[in-house]
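Escalated from tier 1: nicotinamide-adenine-dinucleotide holo job.
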Amino acid sequence: MDPNRWSNGMPRRRVLQTLALAGAAAALPRGFAAGSSTRRLGVAIVGLGGYSGELLAPALQLTRHCRLAGLVTGSPHKIPDWQARYGIADANIYSYDEFHRIADDPDIDVVYIATPNHLHKPQALIAANAGKHVWCEKPMAMDAAEGEAMIRACRDNRVQLAIGYRMQHEPNTRRFMAMAQERPFGRIVQLRAEAGWLGWRQGADDAWRLDPARGGGAMYDMGVYCVNAARYSSGLEPVAVRAWDETARREIFPAVDETTRFTLEFADEIVAECVTSFGRNLNTLHIDCERGWYELSPFQAYDGNVGRASDGTRFAAQLGERPRMQAEQMDQDALAILEGRAPRVPGEEGLRDMRVVDAVFASVRNGNARVPL
Ligand code: NAD
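Tier 2 regenerated the structure:
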């Protein structure tokens, strides 16, 4: 959830060789003839909640390489409205109990998982075993072991796995990723990533985000934006983590973190200071270098991500209004499937973050101990 809440023409053998080079997560689409890149992939959304209804489904009306073709839901009362809006046939709508039958549905190429976090792994396995490509929301899973199981299942079934890190499709973010290599202000010294959302006032109800068993809490929800941003804007992998968990409003958050602060250590004494919260609106990514600095603020909004640098450079918003970012993400991920190449944000990218998340929780459990990665 965001702070602004609702806020090919290649021969088959060459494709397979390319895929082998690109990484095992990529695969030739099942039942899909290499070369027919004009076809729009059919996407079935799993979970008709806030993100699906407000962003993903509207974005699928803007995409050129994929289209909304099916639903998987446990809420039958939502179906008529979705059908009226998007013209989805009865034959392409599944309950969770019959989800596995999607294997026999030729209209569905991709399953987009947008359910609470504890369901990502089991649902990704059902989709992969049904021979469907998997797009999965962040955080990828509950922990790294689940992420590894998802990657294995997709690899074994020769389907792609892409994680819904929409920021990696946003032009200013992609510019920052390039700057991590180009280093226009010299060596990166320190990073700061802050992602929070004033999520709850007394009495508000959003049950799964308050439930540890379903992947609730700020770290899973918003903390992964900090982890991912620290990694993509440094181009480095952290070597150790230290974390502190603070809950000011225990009456609202009896069981999950309201705020988590964590420090990521990288090689060469580079550190990223991160904070994520359900109690404050936070949305800044700042990079200090030897000879200057640059930042995006906001850096993970649905639109209007803008920034500046110490030399006067401005980073203007580029993608247009929401839900353009989600449309760009899904078109890029669809093209990766259609062209038989690895997606921009494969399962392995989600897994690297899950390893950091595991270490954050381990540090909190162990009295803020330094946890090597
Ligand atoms: P939500 O609570 O609005 O929707 C969740 C949906 O899952 C609901 O339709 C609910 O009925 C369904 N569901 C199925 N089984 C459930 C269960 N056991 N418990 C509770 N709900 C169940 O949540 P959301 O905000 O749409 O988030 C869904 C996923 O999308 C999460 O993984 C979240 O992190 C991610 N998300 C990503 C972004 C982004 O910007 N990339 C933004 C928001 C949410």
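The CA atoms of residues 195 and 283 lie 5 Å apart.
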